Amino acid sequence: MRDIKIITIDGPAGAGKSSIAREIAKRFGFTHLDSGAIYRTIGIACKKAGINLENEKEVLEVANKIKIELKDGKVFLNGNNVTEEIRTPEGGMLASKVAQFKEVREIVVKILRELAKGKKIVIDGRDAGTYIFPEADLKIYLTASPEERARRRYKELLEKGFNVSFNEILKEVIERDERDKNRKFAPLVIPDGAVIIDTTEKNLEEVLLKISELINFRN
Predict the structure, then answer these.
(1) Alpha carbons 207 and 169: distance in angstroms, whole number
(2) pLDDT(1) > 70
(3) Quick check: helix, strand or coil at residue 76?
(4) Contact 146/173 with Cβ under 8 angstroms?
(5) Where are the extended beta strands (E) located within the chain?
(6) Model confidence over 3-60: pLDDT tens digits?
(7) What does the pLDDT look like over 172-200, one tens digit per residue?
(8) Using CA atoms, how far apart are residues 62 and 66, in angstroms rounded to an integer?
(9) How far is CA 170 from the centre of its chain?
């Protein structure tokens, strides 16, 4: 069996990609690359710049000027720690808007491929196994029902102190699914050869066990 160097974990918002990727990286000594964090950071930067997020040229100007760094699980925008700021509901919405543009995705892919050089990586996203690393050794596609994904997000935000409505969160999840699946460039699809795992009725440990078995089998 060949040594696994790249693991991709794709899927819709709220399927558990980031939590799973972080834990797999920790257990198997991989570097975790969070593609969503980069899109969220670009979105936040665009908001701070006061530009129109529907204007591709303006979004690209911001994306090309800023400096994004991932260090020890934290995200920095032009040297400032924005880890908490990008994890708000607004951060997710902004990420989805800037991610619709082809050239923005190309900028992010370039950053991620550079970060991956010489490392064993696990990356989560929506096009990690189809566009960013189509040559990945192991591809996972995590999914769950919209209601379950909204419930998880609702619980997470309540625990962080946000005053949110479950119905509003569910509406946002469904709208984001539509944007991600229907964008013209690198839409959310199941990568060829991916192992599909429905997490609706599974807890974190059950999903980790399944993926760990896949890694151990292929190594």
Answers:
(1) 24
(2) no
(3) strand
(4) yes
(5) 6-10, 31-34, 68-71, 74-77, 80-81, 121-125, 138-143, 195-198
(6) 899 999 999 988 999 999 999 999 999 999 988 899 999 999 999 999 999 999 999 9
(7) 999 989 988 988 888 899 999 999 999 99
(8) 6
(9) 18
Residue 200: count of CB within 10 angstroms of its CB: 11
Residue 79 CB-density burial (10 A; 0-12 exposed, 13-18 middle, 19+ buried): exposed
Three-point CA angle 177, 43, 110, nearest 5°: 90
Question: Which amino acid type is present at position 127?
Answer: D
Helix (H, G, I), strand (E, B) or coil at 139: strand
Query: What's the first-to-final CA gap in the chain, in angstroms?
Result: 5
Q: What are phi and psi of 40, to 5 degrees?
A: -60, -40
CB 46 within 8 A of CB 87: no
- Angstrom distance (rounded) from CA 81 to CA 41: 10
Would you put residue 188 in left (φ > 0), alpha (ψ -120 to 50) or beta?
beta
Q: What torsion do the CA atoms of 200, 204, 207, 213 make, to the nearest 10 degrees?
A: -170
Question: CB of 176 within 8 A of CB of 96?
Answer: yes
Question: What is the tens place of the pLDDT at every residue in 74-104?
Answer: 899 999 999 999 988 889 889 989 988 999 9
15 in Cβ contact with 206 (< 8 Å): no
Q: How many residues does the chain have?
A: 219
- Please compute Rg for the chain using Cα positions: 17
User: What gap in Å lies between CA 157 and CA 86, rounded to an integer?
Assistant: 13
What mean pLDDT, rounded, does the chain reach?
Answer: 92
